[in-house]
Specification:
The protein has 203 residues and is mainly β. Helices cover 3% and strands 39% of the residues. The protein has one helix and ten strands, in the order ββαββββββββ. It has a six-stranded mixed beta sheet with strand order 6-9-10-5-8-7, with no helix packed on it. A four-stranded antiparallel beta sheet has the order 2-1-3-4, with no helix packed on it. The protein starts with 5 loop residues before the first strand and ends in a 30-residue tail after the last strand. The model has no long low-confidence stretch (mean pLDDT 91).
Length: 203
C-alpha cells in the first residue's frame, strides 16, 4: 500500500469504516479506524485496500471480536457463617479480575446499620462471584442485607461494563443452626411425690 490508497473495514460483510492512507500511516505501518456502532455479539472484521487505479486487494484474514455492552447483573446473594457470596450473570465474556475494597460494602443484620464488618473481598472470574469475608459469623436466625457502593476498583466485566450499586439488598441466609436448645429441668410430678410433702422429691 501507498499513501492515497483507501482502506475499507467490514464487519460481517458490511462496511463499518473507511479511510485514505497518509504517508504517516505508511511510515507507522498501520492506520487507526473508528467504526460505526457494532451490534452486540461476535463480529468478524475484515479489511481491503483499493489503490488509485481502483484495484482492490483480497480481504484480510478475519479478526473475530466480541461486542459486549451488557453490565453484570446480580443473580443471587447468599450468606453462610462468615462468607457472603454475590453471584452475577454475565452475558458477555466474563468478570474482570479487579477486587473492590472492603469499604465498598456494608453488611447489616437484623435491621442494624453497618453492624457486620467486611474483612476481605475475593473475585472469582470463572464462577462470576464476589465473596465477602465477614468479621462476625451470621447465625441462621439473622436477617441480612448488603449494600455496595462502587469505589476505585469496581466490579465489572472484561468489556468494562460496571455492575450496579446495591442498596440494602436482601441476602438469603443458609447458615446452619448452631444454637443448642435451652437447658432442660427435671422434676418429680406432685402425684408421684408421696409422703409428707408432694414437693420435696422424696417418695
Amino acid at each position: 500500500p501507498v499513501a492515497g490508497d483507501t482502506v475499507v473495514l467490514k464487519a460481517d460483510g458490511t462496511q463499518v469504516a473507511t479511510a485514505v492512507l497518509s504517508s504517516a500511516d505508511i511510515t507507522a505501518g498501520h492506520i487507526d479506524l473508528v467504526t460505526s456502532t457494532l451490534a452486540t455479539g461476535t463480529r468478524s472484521l475484515t479489511a481491503t485496500i483499493t489503490d488509485a487505479a481502483n484495484n482492490t486487494s483480497t480481504a484480510s484474514t478475519a479478526l473475530p471480536i466480541t461486542i459486549d455492552t451488557t453490565a453484570p447483573a446480580l443473580a443471587s446473594a447468599t450468606v453462610n457463617g462468615t462468607s457472603l457470596v454475590l453471584t452475577y450473570t454475565e452475558a458477555g465474556v466474563g468478570l474482570l479480575n479487579t477486587t473492590p475494597a472492603t469499604s465498598d460494602f456494608a453488611v447489616n443484620k437484623n435491621g442494624g446499620t453497618g453492624n457486620v464488618s467486611v474483612t476481605g473481598v475475593a473475585v472469582d472470574t470463572t464462577n462470576k462471584t464476589v465473596t465477602l469475608t465477614l468479621g462476625t459469623a451470621i447465625t441462621n436466625a439473622d436477617s441480612v442485607t448488603v449494600s455496595y457502593t462502587p469505589g476505585a476498583n469496581k466490579t465489572q466485566d472484561i468489556a468494562g461494563n460496571l455492575a450496579l450499586a446495591l442498596t440494602a439488598q436482601p441476602v438469603t441466609n443458609t447458615s446452619s443452626d448452631t444454637t443448642a436448645p435451652a437447658v432442660p429441668t427435671v422434676d418429680l410430678l406432685a402425684a408421684s411425690d408421696t409422703g409428707t410433702s408432694s414437693i420435696d422429691d422424696k417418695t
